[in-house]
């Protein structure tokens, strides 16, 4: 009996750790699979062919096709669910920093754009579409890849960078002779690319590749041109500027293989696979927290800062480092939660001598000091490890 109760609590804990939008997506997909397996017509009202609509205003049928999953075995279903869970969790928690409004707006925009492209193909080329789920997968995959360009991913037996995954996936479908899925994937890639262009206010990574600009068009943490919350605040005439919400460590989420940003490279996003939810706040008004992390401006200040007989956290960062920008609000949150710990940040480009002295070659790197002695070192955006280091050394 005790084992059963413990198992149930673990399942409940796991489900509660999944961010809200991703949880809704998985629930809808599960509902569709159950409906199909039991041969119920429960969801027939939300999915259909374009030419079988009873009324012209049944617009929801186009969006319903995004949840139509075609599968031949339980293994296929589990793989599809895992891919959606992993990519959606990482996007919602990392790129959108757990902001359900921004992430929902992103999905709605991309799905609407995809349905427009699909409708045009039906009208102009009499293209019959049974499902838009491959397009939904492509939206998640492409957006994840451009926000994790330098992340190493184990693909079958090869290790490839994240930015190449959409191309590899495209080539596999070409070799597999799946013209329908290939077309849906292209619709999804196109929709996600358009969103990327609008959010970065550029012509996108493809234009950067054609013009020999390696980092052009890739989204970063600071890009806020086409975020849903920002647009809603402008629409409702709010005078406040839409800043990204303050993040704090979460208990668990999808894991992904990552590596730290190289010191001289142009790293993008880095995380430890842990979910980073929002602090409680209102629907539109973003929360703000006092900036409690002090910037170290000189070598003498650094020496005096790490000398006291108390725990000192130093964040070695770079202004060009995307993962560093993601870690900053987390450290600010920790600083407000731990008044007995001193938090500092050090720009490695301005104080490169100190960075070299402590062999800091990857950003972000967080070093824990006490009485000038290094106690722990965390490389990358790893909120859980930082919190454990604070608790174990306090």
From TrEMBL:
Gene Ontology cellular component annotations, sorted alphabetically: endoplasmic reticulum membrane
Topology versus the membrane: Multi-pass membrane protein
Subcellular location: Endoplasmic reticulum membrane
Stretches that traverse the bilayer: 20-50, 62-85, 105-125
Keywords, in A-Z order: Disulfide bond, Endoplasmic reticulum, Membrane, Transmembrane, Transmembrane helix
One GO MF term attached to the UniProt entry: protein-disulfide reductase activity
Keyword Membrane applies: yes
InterPro entries reported in the protein's UniProt record: DER1 (IPR007599), Thioredoxin (IPR005746), Thioredoxin-like_sf (IPR036249), Thioredoxin_CS (IPR017937), Thioredoxin_domain (IPR013766)
Thioredoxin domain location: 254-394
SUPFAM superfamilies: Thioredoxin-like
NCBIfam families: thioredoxin (TIGR01068)
General function of this protein: May be involved in the degradation of misfolded endoplasmic reticulum (ER) luminal proteins.
Family: Belongs to the derlin family.
Protein name (record): Derlin
């Amino acid at each position: 009996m005790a084992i059963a109760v413990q198992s149930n609590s673990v399942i409940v804990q796991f489900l509660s750790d999944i961010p809200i939008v991703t949880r809704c997506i998985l629930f809808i997909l599960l509902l569709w699979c159950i409906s199909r397996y039991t041969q119920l017509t429960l969801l027939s009202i939300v999915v259909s062919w374009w030419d079988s609509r009873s009324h012209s205003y049944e617009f929801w049928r186009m969006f319903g096709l995004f949840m139509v999953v075609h599968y031949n075995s339980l293994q296929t279903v589990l793989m599809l669910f895992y891919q959606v869970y992993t990519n959606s969790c990482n996007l919602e928690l990392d790129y959108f920093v757990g902001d359900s409004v921004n992430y929902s707006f992103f999905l709605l925009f991309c799905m609407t754009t995809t349905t427009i492209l699909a409708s045009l193909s039906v009208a102009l080329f009499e293209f019959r579409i049974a499902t838009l789920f491959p397009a939904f997968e492509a939206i998640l995959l492409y957006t994840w890849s451009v926000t994790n360009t330098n992340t190493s991913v184990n693909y079958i037996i090869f290790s490839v960078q994240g930015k190449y995954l959409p191309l590899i996936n495209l080539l596999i479908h070409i070799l597999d002779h799946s013209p329908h899925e290939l077309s849906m994937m292209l619709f999804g890639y196109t929709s996600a690319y358009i969103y990327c262009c609008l959010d970065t206010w550029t012509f996108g990574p493809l234009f950067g590749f054609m013009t020999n600009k390696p980092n052009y068009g890739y989204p970063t943490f600071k890009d806020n041109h086409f975020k849903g919350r920002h647009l809603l605040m402008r629409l409702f005439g709010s005078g406040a500027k839409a800043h990204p919400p303050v993040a704090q460590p979460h208990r668990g989420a999808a894991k992904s293989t990552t590596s730290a940003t190289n010191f001289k490279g142009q790293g993008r996003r880095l995380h430890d696979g842990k979910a980073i939810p929002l602090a409680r706040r209102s629907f539109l008004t973003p929360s703000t927290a006092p900036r409690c992390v002090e910037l170290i401006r000189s070598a003498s200040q650094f020496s005096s800062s790490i000398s006291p007989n108390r725990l000192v956290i130093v964040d070695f960062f770079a202004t060009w480092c995307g993962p560093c920008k993601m870690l900053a609000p987390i450290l600010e949150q920790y600083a407000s939660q731990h008044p007995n710990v001193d938090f500092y940040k050090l720009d490695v480009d301005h104080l490169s001598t100190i960075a070299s002295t402590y062999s800091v070659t990857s950003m972000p790197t967080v070093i824990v000091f006490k009485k000038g002695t290094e106690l722990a070192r965390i490389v990358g955006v790893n909120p859980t490890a930082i919190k454990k280091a604070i608790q174990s050394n306090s």
